What we know:
CATH architecture of the largest domain: Orthogonal Bundle
CATH topology of the largest domain: MetI-like fold
Shape: flat
Distance between the termini: 37 Å
Number of domains: 2
Number of helices: 13
CATH superfamily of the largest domain: MetI-like
Radius of gyration: 27 Å
CATH class of the largest domain: Mainly Alpha
Helix content: over 70%
Order of helices and strands: HHHHHHHHHHHHH
Largest sheet: none
Amino acid sequence: MTMNRPVVASGYRPLTKRVQLTTLGLSVVVAFGIFFILDLGGATHNFNIIGAVVVAAVLDIILIYVLSRISEGRRKATDRLMTGLVTTAFLVTLLPLISLIFTTVVNGLPRFDIDFFGSSMRNVVGAGGGGLHALIGTLEITGAATLISVPVGLLSAIYLVEYGRGRLAQAITFFVDVMTGIPSIVAGLFAFALFAIFFGPGIRFGIGGAVALSVLMIPVVVRSTEEMLKLVPNELREAAFALGVPKWLTIVKVVLPTAIAGIVTGVMLSISRIIGETAPLLIIVGMSTSMNYDLFSDRMATLPVFVYTEYANQGMDTQAYLDRAWTSALVLILIVMALNLVARLISHFLSPKGLR
């Protein structure tokens, strides 16, 4: 019975796991020691843990490459160098995300309580109050934008993939590409100008924010749905046609169920794209300190605008305003995470059994 061993050139010995772990530990100790000395000497204002991690990774790559070049040869050393660079690039990419989540959680937990989710800012000055009105406004406006965007985006994608030919399809594709790059504040100005024509320049209401967000959401839904429909094998369509199934029924019963997992994921990504938008809602929805459940009447509060106003208009008790802003940001992150989790579950249960 033979054992699998690392393949190296003749005359060389592979690096053991112990050597690799020792090199990593030495790199961490040296890097953190350097930053600790700099912190004690006053060269830095506080200990830079991110910088220490990056320096440790670079030192580990260099040491592993040198040891591998001596022990395993140039080819294996080059392979380890490239692997280390790719891994380091991945970790560096994760650092801003980890830092963002960590900072938001630490600063948002002090007001993550029942009072925040059970009260609004009506007649509240300074400490106290909560973001219930903003949470309800965000859910209502985002839900309305989804109801507008998903049917339009889904039907547009079906037309482009299954029926679209000629200049009309080219025009739709062109305008979808243009809408993808529209700044969010332009969408808010569009919605404000549209409703100002009918209701006057002072109009502020929730449905206007939903229309503005739908302008940003529709191209994402169209693009993601279009790509998912293109991935459905043509053999499935041809088999349905061979059985005499009409084209519309083939789309409903064969194409859409096959691509439903990717479609749902794309819709959730588009919701995540718009749920944190601030500029359009500032223009057309405004801000309110009271509860407002009616999308078609008066101003409404939303979590992004609530975060902005709490941070930009701090009162005498500055920390109370900052705490509410951080907690609102944390709630937004949790909503996005919940949406992605729901998307995964829906994709799992609705996708064909052979693709699970």
